[in-house]
Amino acid sequence: MAPRLIITGSTGYIGTRLAALARERGFDVVEFGRRSEAKWRIGDEPAASDLEGAAAVIHLAHSWATGPEAAEESNINISGTVKLAEAAKAAGVSRFVFASSTSSRPEALNVYGRTKFRIEQHLAASAAAPIVRIARIGLVYGGPRTAMYGLMAKLSALSPLLPMIGLSRKVQPIHLDEVAAGLLTLATDESQPPRAFVLAQERPISFAAWLRILRRSQGKGNLHFIPIPLTAALLACRMTKLLPLIPTVDPERVLGLAGATPMESGESLRLLKLHLADPLVMLSAELGQKSGEPSQSEAKALLQYLGSAPTEMQLQRLSEGLRREGLAPLGLSPTLIKHPRLLALFEPPANRTQHRLARALYLADLAIEPERQRDKKAGLFNAILTISGDVLLLPLRALLAGRYR
Question: If residue 152 lies in a helix (H) or strand (E), which one and from where to where?
């Protein structure tokens, strides 16, 4: 007999894929919702007959009808989740998986993050605590272009110049299929203890790098940004509701980005045996682009700028290093890729070690190192030329280096 799995919020972005994957793996899936066989909505008392015999409940449903700062007793997301979890335990269900978020914090800027944190606290103090597993999910991408992923994909493809907040904020992408696989493991693996798990990339990348990945994977060119303050972004959100042909942006999403802070996910991924793919590779494959082309071209330009005739081994080393450090794509313009010597205008000062271009050039230098002829020394004349060039270019570099920060 197929194990029985209950999923709430099964018509949403994550829920639809989760339900499909569970059925593919042989589960008898029962969907809780207003438009499903088990008529239920968050806050309702679930029927005991619907819960009995289930191996697990995965709770994704969330009501957006509750006021921003509703009292805990009147917030159905809190009371409804605890009610469902306690009913599941009373019915003999072994595991209750609550889909939370990496924005779950008491000081989160967005209501969603604060609400998720409050739900986690209430579940930990409830009678259902022994069967609860928390899944804090990162920035989900892939699949149908809906939800936050769809919005970001549309915005990144609109124009090569994008006004945006939080460009230096770190985000942790995870593919939709990887989220679904992680949730199913939490629901079925009896060896996992009741605790919080983080489903997100172990190495965070900047939000600016993430938007560039989205644009490149759609076959578009480079993406440049106009940094804007949070107050202006919130005002723009209100304007998107009035203007046609522009994606509507919920202020909650903007606040979520503005307050984004990475969570450590390495241990969770190892426990769940999840090996997350490179987002650029995944998206490029989904959207029909050549996955290695942008990184390979940029790697070649960086190596040529350092005076190397790139070998296949050097290109492979550097491309892998750029991906591993979240620097792929770096976002070099087609002109710079075609004429790498122009990178001299954008190279940051030596003390700017956290600058994206500086980090990329450091990796390029490491990629060359094994083949470098150690006994070949630069002549005095070449050294003087290099130093003189650096001095002359200093004002231009100070002006332009911010472009690839």
Answer: helix 147-158
Query: CA–CA distance from 123 to each of 52, 78, 156, 349 (Å)?
Result: 20, 9, 38, 51
Q: What is the CA radius of gyration of the chain?
A: 25
- The confidence score (pLDDT) of residue 25 equals 94
Q: What confidence tens digit (pLDDT) does each residue in 255-286 have?
A: 888 888 899 999 999 999 999 999 988 898 88
> Is 136 exposed, middle or buried (CB count within 10 Å of its CB: 0-12, 13-18, 19+)?
buried
Tell me: the pLDDT tens digits for 60-110? 999 987 665 555 667 899 999 999 999 999 999 999 999 999 999 999 988
Say if CB 214 and CB 331 are below 8 A apart: no
What confidence score (pLDDT) does residue 222 get?
84
CA terminus-to-terminus distance, the chain: 56
Burial class (CB in 10 A: 0-12, 13-18, 19+), 63: middle
- Vertex 323: Cα angle to 160 and 197 (nearest 5): 105
CA–chain centroid gap for 389, Å, is 40
- Report the alpha-carbon distance of residue 11 to residue 5 in Å, rounded: 15
Neighbouring-strand partners of residue 174: 140
Question: What are residue 206's DSSP bridge partners?
Answer: 170
Q: For the domain with range 4-286, which CATH number is right: 3.30.1360.10, 3.40.228.10, 3.40.710.10, 3.40.50.720? A: 3.40.50.720
Residue 379 one-letter amino acid: G
